[in-house]
Amino acid sequence: MKLLEDRIKKEGTVLSDDVLKVDRFLNHQVDPQLMDAIGVEFARLFKDDHITRILTVESSGIAPAVFTGLHLNVPVVFARKHKSLTLNDNLYTADVYSYTKQVNNQISIDKRFINADDRVLIIDDFLANGQAASGLIDIVNAANAEVGGVGIVIEKSFQKGRRLITDQGIKVESLARVKSLANNQVTFEE
Ligand code: G4P
Ligand code: NA
Ligand code: NA
């Protein structure tokens, strides 16, 4: 997606050989117009996949997921990383290990918000090692629902996340595929 790549070039900061900071439009400040364009693009890419629901994980997946739900006209559910005050035990949970932060997080979704007849589109802001997406896939499987695809705003294609998902026969669409962050330079896949 040209618009997104241009924005990453213009406003992204390379923090190291494997971390890209994009807090001016995605991870802290959010650009609604860009998110809307992202939603339109994901809706186009998944329009024939019979998606009935979108799943993401708080917090940075929510903005692109909501705009995608708007354009696919389906509800959006985000997994929580922290137990909510109105906690019940009617939850699907999955463990998500973060290599970046070296911590294990438990994510959870209320069972009322995913059904066995759902075809779920998983949306997230970044795809690195694929642990967040895998946790969401585990939850969809636990609900006996189907994964209709995975949509990623920024994929770091030099990390192993895509492979982990496509090996399960799941369609992955990334709007920007970063090939390298070496030498303080963002290089995209062709
Ligand atoms: P993985 O799920 O693909 O295995 O990724 P990993 O554990 O490495 O990522 C942990 C967190 O860091 C996730 O956000 C993920 O989106 C984010 N992340 C991974 N690589 C990058 C990067 O290059 N740049 C930025 N800005 N973020 C990255 P999170 O902890 O769930 O936070 P949030 O959703 O609340 O923002
Ligand atoms: Na995220
Ligand atoms: Na993030």
Automatic annotation (TrEMBL):
Predominant localisation class: cytoplasm
Residues annotated as transmembrane: none
CDD domains: PRTases_typeI
MF GO annotations: xanthine phosphoribosyltransferase activity
Binding, 5-phospho-alpha-D-ribose 1-diphosphate: A128, N129, G130, Q131, A132
Protein localization: Cytoplasm
EC number: 2.4.2.22
Pathway participation: Purine metabolism; XMP biosynthesis via salvage pathway; XMP from xanthine: step 1/1
Catalyzed chemical reaction(s): XMP + diphosphate = xanthine + 5-phospho-alpha-D-ribose 1-diphosphate
Keyword line: Cytoplasm, Glycosyltransferase, Purine salvage, Transferase
Chain positions recorded as xanthine binding sites: L20, N27, K156
Subunit structure: Homodimer.
Role according to the record: Converts the preformed base xanthine, a product of nucleic acid breakdown, to xanthosine 5'-monophosphate (XMP), so it can be reused for RNA or DNA synthesis.
Family, as annotated: Belongs to the purine/pyrimidine phosphoribosyltransferase family. Xpt subfamily.
Protein's recorded name: Xanthine phosphoribosyltransferase
Species in which this protein is naturally found: Nicoliella lavandulae
